Amino acid sequence: MLLNPVLGKLVGKRVVLASASPRRQEILTNVGLRFEVVPSWFKETLEKSLFAAPYEYAMETAKQKALEVANRMHVKHLRTPDVVIGADTIVTVDEQILEKPVDKQDAYRMLSRLSGKEHSVFTGVAIIHCSSKDNQLETDVTNFYEETKVKFSDLSEELLWEYIHSGEPMDKAGGYGIQALGGMLVEYVHGDFLNVVGFPLNHFCKKLAELYYPPPKHNIQHKKYDSIPSVDTFENLSDGESESSNFTEHKAASKLDNSGMCSSGAIYNYENSSSVRTGFMVPLENQSGVSESAAKLPSKILELMDGFRASKALFVACKLKIFDHLKDKGPLKAVDIANEIGTSVCGTERLLDACAALGLLEKTSQGYRNTDSANTYLTSDGEYSLHGYIIHSNDHVWPLFTNLESAVKEGSRQNHRAFGRKAEDLFKDYYHSWEVKQRFMAAMHSIAHLTARDVATAFDLSQFKSACDLGGCTGALAHELVQIYPNLKVTVFDLPEVIANISYFQPSGQCTAPVTFVSGDFFKDNLPEADLYILSRVLHDWSDEKIHVLLSKISAVCKPGCGILLAEMVLDDEKKNRSTALLQSLNMLVQTEGKERSGSEYRGLLEQHGFTNVKIRLTGNLLDVILCVKT
Ligand SMILES: Cc1cn([C@H]2C[C@H](O)[C@@H](COP(=O)(O)OP(=O)(O)OP(=O)(O)O)O2)c(=O)[nH]c1=O
Questions:
Q1: What is the pLDDT, as a whole number, of residue 3?
Q2: A GO BP term, please (predicted)?
């Protein structure tokens, strides 16, 4: 941790990179930062003339990219990210801002302007610290920029076009990539090379140092670090998640510092408490001679160790329908809730307190009431209810996960151990009783409904006239698709047991465009004709062999230009960053013959069946989306 103590401050936090740029992902991954990637949907259309300087435009765009992701994640997930990082890179020459070229002509226009001249590359960065208060997102924005000067040699027409035809310019500001072929065009670079590639790592670390390690009292007037604080300094600092490593507290100090209006007493109080609790100024020693920083709490491990307790508290509260009971009601006392649901007062009170501490309930002197999130997601009848999935997790996934050790040893599913019977077929297990089938369909419906809009809009699907959602279950995604693409005819194809049971899940109220339901087994029966075949959370259930059977059937009925849309949790190629998807892969191990796969693995499977031009979108919601077309 000596090399990156500043980045160490982000360990254990939910850090999100609001960028689709593979370069930014690589730069941050290379220094060991753990983060999720949620590309921003903010369109880079701010009016440039409103900004006094180009870097202000880049900083504002970076900020808007990050805020869009912070807001989207806050609304869609129960857990708000802790830190969202956004960036925007622009090139400026002759007082003109150049972004990514829209086509080859545009790339030519940009590169010929840069030929033989010095230009500036600005990257604006926004670091947004997020918190949730009364279910409202609160953000604290730190914004900065870095400038690097780059000089190009004189570029001949021939060279320019050869470079443009390489395809490299198209997704890069100014139409070149200094890190690859574009490096051959460059005579010199003054400044941070990584800034040109899209992320000013050094300045970013300095900014984090300012935020997380405010300067000691005697030099608080000169807060800005000129360099990343030296390694020696950091050896004395806590890397733990102690209360005083909290960003908010340091931010409070830097705000005091920035305003210059606080009394010296206020500064003194702050530093005093900081030094006592973190050993920031003076590493304290306890009686055994171990410094406070060495005795830091392994908070991440503790959180993981106890994670199941929180899950089970949530499951039981849902199972006992506590959130249903509190819906649309004022605060209720524990005793009243216990009487109503027939549970012990002492046990109920502890469960309610735990739920309040987990942010699922609000506790006041008058009693307990639902948070907005609980009303939306945890009651059983809400439009975006996750109740079905939570009950499925409790009744089905939980018993399977208790056999994870056997699953890892044996490398196979554990249904026989968890439920005392060996299902010959994955779905027979769910459909052996009406109750289990209803529970499973409710679970699939919750996730499909919650993710449907992001899946349906990840790509523009308006070129397709008909779609067939294979294994589309209750039709939640199909209904969303026909809303968004009114000219699209959607067929849901699923097992007869499923189709017989869909009426309960159909949208009520206003008439929606029709969705057709067809029963059949996609491994055995003929597939309905369609321009687009959708497989949402289907491939992860199956082995590569079975997937090849299914893809070859689809390929056989697909005409050129027709496509496949996959919705799955997509792993990063190195399988090391996306913990939710990696845990989902363990979930597949305990209950199916399938697994979660990386983008390259899906690409490999699809390309073998003639589906090329594979595009992958990480949505930031539970499911990512892959679109490919038959050539
Ligand atoms: C000048 C230059 C830019 N670039 C890249 C960095 C950025 O990815 C891109 C500039 O576009 P940006 O809009 O900054 O970023 P992006 O569209 O790639 O990703 P997102 O908006 O989701 O964050 O150009 C290089 O890779 N090499 C270079 O030499």
A1: 60
A2: methylation
- Encoded tokens for 304: 């993981």
Distance between Cα 569 and ligand 1 center (Å):
25
| CATH number belonging to domain 4-206 | 3.90.950.10
Task: Return residue ranges of the chain for CATH 3.90.950.10.
Answer: 4-206
Kindly list the catalytic residues: 88
Residue 344 scores a pLDDT above 50: yes
Is the CB of residue 127 less than 8 Å from the CB of residue 170?
Answer: no
More reliable by pLDDT, 188 or 382: 188
Residue with more model confidence, 246 or 554: 554
Is 369 in contact with 404 (CB distance < 8 Å)? no
**pLDDT, average across residues 287-312:** 72
Residue 88 Cβ contacting ligand 1 at under 6 Å: yes
Residue 232 has pLDDT above 90, yes or no: no
Atom of ligand 1 nearest to the CA of 40: 22
- From 85, 88, 89, 118, the mutation candidate for ligand 1 (largest count of ligand atoms within 8 A of CB) is 89
Residues 6+ apart with CB under 8 A from 474: 441, 444, 445, 448, 498, 502, 505, 506
pTM of the prediction? 0.57
Q: Cα of 208 to ligand 1 centre, how many Å?
A: 22
Classify domain 299-385 by CATH architecture: Orthogonal Bundle (1.10)
Residue range 434-630, CATH number? 3.40.50.150
Q: What is the ipTM of this complex?
A: 0.97
The pLDDT of 277-290, averaged and rounded, is: 35
Domain with CATH 1.10.10.10 in the chain: 299-385
Answer whether 499 contacts ligand 1 (Cβ < 6 A): no
Distance CA 396, CA 582 (A): 19
- The order of strands in the sheet holding 624-630 is 515-519, 489-494, 466-470, 532-536, 563-568, 624-630, 611-617
CA angle 536, 449, 66 (to 5 degrees): 90
The SS3 call for residue 273 is helix
